[in-house]
Hints:
Mean pLDDT: 95
Number of strands: 7
Shape: globular
Bound molecules: BIS(adenosine)-5'-pentaphosphate
Order of helices and strands: EHEHHEEEHEHHEH
Amino acid sequence: MSGRRVIITGVPGVGKTTVVTGALKRLEDKGITYKSLNFGTYMYEAALKEGLARDRDEMRKLPRDAQKRLQQSAARAMAGEEGNVLIDTHASVKTPRGFLPGLPEWVLRELMPDTIILVETDADQILLRRLADETRTRDMEGSGSIAGHQEFNRAIAAAYSMITGCTIKCITNADFLLEQAVEEMANALG
Ligand code: AP5
C-alpha cells in the first residue's frame, strides 16, 4: 500500500469538513495531494441502493446490523485506494441505542490508518453551529451531552490506536480561530 492513510473524525458539526477543505487547499499549493473520501457518502450510496435511508441523517437510526453492514461495504470500497488518502468519518456514532464504534476492528483492518485526527472544540460552540446549520437534520442535544460524546471519542480512538499502532492527533477548531485549525491540519497532513 503506497501513500499515507489519514482518518479525520469529530462529532457532527464540529467543522471537520471545513478544516480539511482549507488544509487540502494549502497543501495543493505545495504540490501535496490527497484523495479525499467521505465514509458517510459511501455508506449512504449503499443505503440508497438497498432503500434503507432517505437522507444521511437517517442512517444513524437504522438497526445496528444494517449500520454494520453499510460500514463494512464502505470500508471495503475504500480499501483499494492508492496514494495519499484522507477519510472523513466518525470515531463513534450516537445512535438511539448507544454509541456505535465508527471504526470497529473489521473496518480498521480494511483501512489500516497511519494517523487518526480528532477535530474538537467547546461543546457550546458545536451546539450553536448545529443550530445555525439548516441543511442537516441534527439530533437535538445539550452541550453536556456533546462534551460527553467528545470524551468518548478520545477513549475509543485510544483503542483504535492499540489495534493498528496508528498515531492520534487532536486539533481544536475554535470559533474565530479557523485559520489556526487549518494550519495545524495542513502540518499534520504535510
Ligand atoms: P457526515 O456527513 O460525515 O456527517 P457529519 O459529521 O454531520 O458531517 P458534517 O459534514 O455535517 O459536519 P462537520 O463536522 O464536517 O462540520 P462542517 O465542516 O460541515 O456523516 C453522515 C452520517 O454517516 C453519520 O451521521 C453516520 O450516520 C454515517 N457515518 C459516517 N461515518 C460512519 C462510520 N464510520 N460508521 C458508521 N456510520 C458512519 O461545519 C459545520 C458548520 O460549522 C458549518 O456551518 C461551518 O461553516 C461551521 N464552522 C466550521 N468551523 C468553524 C469555525 N472555526 N468557526 C465558526 N464556524 C465554523
